[in-house]
Amino acid sequence: MIDPLPILQSTFGFPGFRGVQEQVVSRVLAAENTLAVMPTGAGKSLCYQLPAVALDGTCVVVSPLIALMHDQLRAATAIGIRAATLTSVDTDQMETIARFRRGELDLLYVAPERASNESFRNLLGQSPLALFAIDEAHCVSEWGHDFRPDYRLLRTMLDAFPHVPRLALTATADAHTRADILEQLGIPHDGMIVAGFDRPNIQYRISPKDNITRQIADIVAEQPGPGIVYAQTRKGVEQLAERLASTGRKVRPYHAGLDPAVRARNQADFVASEDMVIVATVAFGMGIDKPDVRFVAHAGLPKSIEGYYQETGRAGRDGDPSIAHLFWGAEDFAKARQRIGEVEPHRQPGERARLTALGALVETPTCRRQILLRHFGDPAPDTCGNCDNCLNPPGAIDATEVARKFLSA
Ligand code: ADP
Ligand code: MG
User: Fold this and answer.
1) Where does the Helicase ATP-binding domain start and stop, copy by copy (predicted)?
2) What is the ipTM of this complex?
3) Which of 18, 83, 210, 388 is most buried (CB neighbours < 10 A)?
């Protein structure tokens, strides 16, 4: 079998594998169908990019976002990997198809809606395939937090090439979603590899809202280094960004309603900056690789524990101490319940379970990390020593409060 280490070092310039990468890559090189569950920043892309270089034939990568594909394309091309994207916005589609037919592509990135397309399947039959990589694979599950109906159509494409190995990748999958991914994509249960989810350098802090603008402004004023503030709506982003400007920090907004050129500039400036705060909707951050984000602050309840983990996971990728703040109010839960009432009935139980899990996280008087890690099936000690509840046990605060009242009565 091919030795992946020399390729890791020469093509990717990394001295060694991280975590479970080596295990995942070996399975893929042995043509075994695999689901890799690895946290954000763990290096999932390498798990298919390296085999794509090592193996004969093209690796077809399914990815849900065009912007993400183009980021990946740039990064892969920069290190000499022969890659292309085939999406509706690409003007060089004819050339890409010709390159694929000539066997000149290591990586071909496509959107999931192509998979159902018969002419695309015909095209795939015209040149050797090395691998199917399905990125953000939780999108295939209605239990997942980001279901995309187009992911369901992937199975037709995969089954049309039964001898081509499949690698599904996701950062965020609870037990139910994982089982669903295996089933939907035809991967055996013993083909799942799960990496540790703990991010010990991130300190989790969760509090009720009182004056949310002031609470966020205090953090932004006090905490140095680059930071991301997540607001729930575009309007919320605009308002917060405006108010935070008075903290004296460099603050920029980011949401889908901004002029694309402004949005791209704000993102690029943030990535290059050592002290900027970006106020954004959750659309921000996917595919951004900025190692030195020192804090993430949620001005309101995230959509799910998976979303919370993914968004807070953008802090401290360099391993240095970082803080994840979250402020929530009872009205966030009321709104979430209302939203659940509006989704298709068969999806409501899953959505309700997700909201309950999130409620347990924000309301717990015990270790936050324990709840997070156990949610992802990771073993976790009772106390982590690096969350608000471990650092300031609420029981102790209540007891002094009770004692004070008792004494003053
Ligand atoms: P994920 O998709 O799991 O969030 P990425 O594939 O975007 O993560 O990788 C995150 C970062 O880790 C990238 O900057 C990548 O270059 C880097 N990386 C990946 N594998 C290694 C490795 N073995 N050694 C050092 N850095 C790595
Ligand atoms: Mg990724």
Assistant:
1) 25-191
2) 0.98
3) 83
